[in-house]
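Page 42, continued from yesterday. The earlier attempt failed because a stray header line got pasted into the input along with the sequence. Redoing it now with the clean sequence only.
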Amino acid sequence: MVTRDDVREARLRAAQSHAALLGDRSACVMAKNGTPFPAGKYWEGQTAALGELLRASGDDLTAEASRLRDVWVRRPVPGNPREAESYRAGGVDALASFAD
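This time it went through. Structure tokens are written below.
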């Protein structure tokens, strides 16, 4: 059974991976400069998707992860196509790890 603590720990790991990859660079500054950063978007997508899962109102997080995974597969993501696909892939992968 998936617990909120499990999801919190996974979200923390994703956020730490994102921060480690960025080093001392700001993702906002990189985006404004037009610097593509698909690897960073992957971890950002994981962090965002797991945050959504934590905010889900249901008690069955496995079912919620499955539902959200399907939403993320279809969700349009604006911006650079490579970065958008990386962001989506990160979210889908994170949710799939908790889905049934």
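Notes: The chain is about 75% helix and 0% strand.
Reminder to self: strip header lines before submitting.
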